[in-house]
Amino acid sequence: MLDSPAPSSSLSGRSSYFPEATDEQWNDWRWQYRNRVKDLETLHRLLPYSKSEYQQLKLLAPSLHVGIPPYYLSLIDPSDPEDPVRKQAVPSILEYTYRSVGIDDPLGEDADMPVEGLVHRYPDRCLFIATNMCPMYCRHCTRRREWEDGELPKNRQQLDAMIDYIRRSPQIRDVIFSGGDPLSLPLPVLDYCLTELRKISHVEIIRIGTRFPVVLPQRITDELVGILGKHLPVWMNTHFNHPNELTPEAAAACRKVLSAGIPVNNQSVLMRGVNDSAQTMLRLCQGLLKMGVRPYYLFQCDPIHGAEHLRTSVWTGVEIIEKMRGWTSGLAIPTFVVDTEGGGKVPITSNYIMYATEDTLVLRNYEGKIFPYRNPAPAVRSKPRRPVAQPAQGRSSRGTRPHLAQIRSTPDANRSDV
Ligand code: SF4
Q1: Which CATH architecture has domain 110-347?
Q2: What separation in Å is there between the alpha carbon of 395 and the centre of ligand 1?
Q3: Confidence class for position 383, pLDDT limits 50, 70, 90
Q4: What confidence tens digit (pLDDT) does each residue in 182-209 have?
Q5: Hey, where are the domains in the chain?
């Protein structure tokens, strides 16, 4: 099922877009950060828009928020307007065409923010948003509302208020640094936050959500990894979306993080024309495993303003996972989830239970073959036997077999490891 392999490096793009860059500059994350492409004219010079799209975008340019590191830009094929890396990084006129569709805060996070910058929705974990700055401003970003008005890292007082809330909330055992990208913070600030959190006995793990390994892997320096490694257990969640992002530079960055004892998971976003096929997702997930990175989530693209053109049907995600399951290792298969407004993540899976009573299940395997499976009886029956799936309300149960849709709605049919 695999097609052509991922590119071996960003070298060809580098020589055509940035021929004057020395090796020293190219490998220096500060040079990469300073030289991010941040305006429409430079973008148009390097990756030409059509004349009409350029003119339309020029009219809207004052509201454009762009930032593309030279490294990430070098992965784009300038002759292909449908390039999957381009779609994630380069503003399109379609962001404005469908501007009225969608909402600013699709996850309803602002309503779950007891302290500015800290989202506390699930019982035992919280999001820690220390900055709104990112190495690149992804066109599909769920938190566009955070960065569209400019780059504003939190000040010391704001960070202390967030840490203090966690200190006063003993149920929080897992703190997730999330986008804006926490690795955009100056290292002393990052170290300060991690040190203060580590002083709180109920904080068991810290997760770092970052796109640096994907869009600017040069940022993963020994110094940075040394700081993260002081505060274990730390987990890293990164965000590769397409196999063209799996370069030697990205692999080296992930290896460096892994060698410090920090497991790396990947969270992809499903996007039209980027990764909306089983073949692309297979290449991506198998390539991630080769780099030591575990595919964790595949997110349905959130209904954010400006990203409607990138959204697919939910059924596309269900179908992709179904086409992967069984055809490759379960390690390579992310959980497909829809993030609801105010309700958190909901895993959506195909149904493999065709029929079920308490004693027997009829299961469908990855090839569509049907198998009966005997369900062991509980050691002590506390209640009389009854079918697991109940008939629909208002209908006689006599002689009625549970319908597939009813089985789908039982919790057991949707069990997930989230
Ligand atoms: S790196 Fe993350 S937070 Fe930043 S723009 Fe991209 S998706 Fe949004």
Answers
A1: Alpha-Beta Barrel (3.20)
A2: 49
A3: low
A4: 999 999 999 999 999 999 999 999 999 9
A5: 11-97, 110-347, 353-414
Residue in the structure block whose two tokens are 């930032």:
67
Residue 226's CB: how many other CB atoms inside 10 A? 12
**What's the pLDDT score for residue 385?**
54
Going from the Cα of 138 to the center of ligand 1, the distance in angstroms, rounded, reads 5
- Region 160-185 average pLDDT: 96
Mutate to test the pocket of ligand 1, among 87, 107, 137, 138 (most ligand atoms within 8 A of CB): 138
Residue 239's Cβ-count burial label (10 Å; 0-12, 13-18, 19+) is buried
Q: Are 289 and 295 in contact (CB under 8 A)?
A: yes
Question: What would the pLDDT profile of 329-348 be if each residue is shown by its tens digit?
Answer: 999 999 999 999 988 999 99
Of 111, 15, 14, the residue nearest 69 (C-alpha) = 14
Exposed/middle/buried for residue 5 (C-beta within 10 Å: 0-12, 13-18, 19+): exposed
The closest residue, in CA terms, to atom 6 on ligand 1 is 138
Q: Is the CB of 137 under 6 A from ligand 1?
A: yes
